[in-house]
UniProtKB/TrEMBL annotation, chains A, B, C, D, E, F, G:
Major localisation: cytoplasm
Gene Ontology MF terms: ATP binding; metal ion binding; protein folding chaperone; protein-folding chaperone binding; unfolded protein binding
Protein family: Belongs to the GroES chaperonin family.
InterPro entries: Chaperonin_GroES, Chaperonin_GroES_sf, Chaprnonin_Cpn10_CS, GroES-like_sf
Location in the cell: Cytoplasm
Known function: Together with the chaperonin GroEL, plays an essential role in assisting protein folding. The GroEL-GroES system forms a nano-cage that allows encapsulation of the non-native substrate proteins and provides a physical environment optimized to promote and accelerate protein folding. GroES binds to the apical surface of the GroEL ring, thereby capping the opening of the GroEL channel.
Coiled-coil residues: none
Entry-linked Gene3D superfamilies: GroES chaperonin
Record key words, sorted: Chaperone, Cytoplasm
Pfam families according to UniProt: Cpn10
Organism of origin: Alkaliphilus peptidifermentans DSM 18978
Source organism superkingdom: Bacteria
Bilayer-crossing regions: none
Lineage start: Bacteria, Bacillati, Bacillota, Clostridia, Peptostreptococcales
The protein's name in its UniProt record: Co-chaperonin GroES
Length: 94, 94, 94, 94, 94, 94, 94
C-alpha cells in the first residue's frame, strides 16, 4: 500500500463480520463508543509527537480493536482504509 | 484470553451481583458515577503513555472497583469484557 | 478494611452531624460546593500520578474536610465509603 | 485554629466592612469577579502541587484581597472561614 | 500604595481619555476585546507561577495597554485600581 | 512561491479529482472529517513550537492527505493555497 | 512607533487591498478564518512565554499573513494597529 502515515498514525482496514466470527470475537458496541476490529496496513514512524516520545507498539498485520469514531476514512483502489492515531487502538487480538 | 491491551489499558470482566455478595461489597452507585466490581483479565505493558511513565499497579486476577461509564465493551466467546485505562480503576478489593 | 485505593486515592467514611458537634466544626455548605467531614479509612500509595509525583499527606484516622461532590460512593458490610483523590481533600481537622 | 489546610491551600476569615474602612480599602466588585478582603488564619505547607513546586507567599495574619467566588466555606465555633488555594489570593494589603 | 500583588500580578490605574490624548494614543476597542491604557502602580515578585518561571517585564510608572476585561477592580482611598496578571498586559507605550 | 510559512506550518495546493484518479486514491470523506489530497508547496522551518521540538517530516512536492477543515485558505496569483500545521497532515501518498 | 509589545507579541499594520494587488496576493477568506495581510511594525523580545522559550521569527518590515480575528486593535496618531501573538501569524510573504 502506498499510504505512509505521519507521526504516530496508522492505516487500518476494517475486518468484516465473517472475519470476526472466525476469531470468535464479537463487538456489540455501545451508544457511547462503538468498537471495531481491523487489520494494521501501515504504521507511522512514531517519534516526538506533540513533544512526547511515542513508540509504535503495533505492526503491519496485527488484528486490533479500535474505536469506531476515531480517525479519517480514505478509499484507495476500491478499498476503504482508516487513518488514526495509535492511541485510538485499544488492544491487539492474538 | 487473546485480547492484549495496549499501553496502560486493562481488560476486565464484570462481576455479577451474587459474586459481590460473597465478598460483602455492595455498590449502590450514584447519579454522577456508578461504580462496578470486576476481575482483571489482562494488563497492558504500561510505559510511556502521553509522554508520562505509567507503572501498572494491577495484575490478572485482581478484584477491582471501576467507574461504570469508563472504557469500551467487547464480547468474546460469549463473554463481555471491558477495555479501560488503569486510571479508571479506583481500588483493589482484597 | 479490604478496599485498597490505587494511586493518589483515599477511602473515607463520612462523619455524621453528632460527630461534628463534638469537634465543634459545622459545615454549612454553599450552592457551589458542599463541604463534608470524614475520617480517612485507607490511603493509596501515591507515586507517579498522571506523570507527576504525588506524596500522600493524609493517613488513616485523619479527620478531613472534603468536597461533597468529589469521588465515588461504595457500600461495604453495611457502611458507606467514598473513594476520592487526595487532591479533593481540603484540610485536616486536628 | 485546628483546621490545617493541605497543599497550597489557606484558611481565611473575611473582614467586615468596618474593618475595611479602617484600612481605607473599599472593594466595589464587578459582575465578573467580586473581590473581598480577608485575614489569613492558616497556611498549608505548599510543596509539589499538581507536579509543580509551590512556595507559600502568605503567612498567618496577612490581610489579603481574594476572589469572592473562590474556595469552600466552613463554619467553626460560630466563625465562618473559607478554604482556598493561594493562587486565588490576588494581593496582600499592608 | 499599600497593595502588594502576589506572583505575576500587577496593580494598575486606568488613564483617562485626556491623558491618552496627550500621548497621542486612542484605543477604540472592538466587540471582542476592549483595550485600555493604564499606569503600573505595583508589580508582584514574579518567580514560579503555575510551575513556570515568570520574569516581570513591567515596572512601576510604565504606561501600558491592557485588555479591559482582565483582572479585578479594587477601590482604595477613592481611587480605582485593577489587579491583573502581567500576561494580560499587551504592550508598553513609551 | 513567495509564501514562507512560520514554525510548523506548511503551504499546500489541493489536488483536483482528475489528479486523484491518476494515483488511484479516492477520498469519499465523512460527516465528521472530510479528507483531501494536496501537494506540499512550502514547508516551515519547524523547531520549538509551543515549547515542543517539531521536526518537519514533509517536503516540497509530497502528495499528502489532510483534513479538509484544517488551515487557512490564501489565493495567490489566481491559485488557491491552504496554510496549515504539519500536524493536520495525516499521511504521505507515495 | 512608541508601542513596545511584551513577550511574544507583535504590532502590525494592516495592508489595504491596493497594496495586496501590487504583490499579487489576494486573500479571499472563509467563514471559519478570514486571513489578512499586514506589515510588522514592532516585535516583542520573545523569551520565556508561559514557561516555553519563544524565538521571534518575524522582524520589523516583514509582510505577513495573519488571522483576522486574532489580537487587539489599537489606534495611534490616526493609524490603526493590531497587537497579536507571533503564533497568530501564519506566514511571511516575500
Amino acid at each position: 500500500m502506498n499510504i505512509k502515515p505521519l507521526g504516530d498514525r496508522v492505516v487500518i482496514r476494517r475486518l468484516e463480520a465473517e472475519e470476526k466470527t472466525k476469531s470468535g470475537i464479537v463487538l456489540p458496541g455501545t451508544a457511547k463508543e462503538q468498537p471495531q476490529m481491523a487489520e494494521i496496513m501501515a504504521v507511522g514512524p512514531g517519534g516526538m509527537i506533540d513533544g512526547k516520545e511515542v513508540v509504535m507498539e503495533v505492526k503491519v498485520g496485527d488484528k486490533v480493536i479500535f474505536s469506531k469514531y476515531a480517525g479519517t476514512e480514505v478509499k484507495h483502489d476500491g478499498v476503504e482504509y482508516t487513518i488514526l492515531r495509535q492511541n485510538d487502538i485499544l488492544a491487539i487480538v492474538e
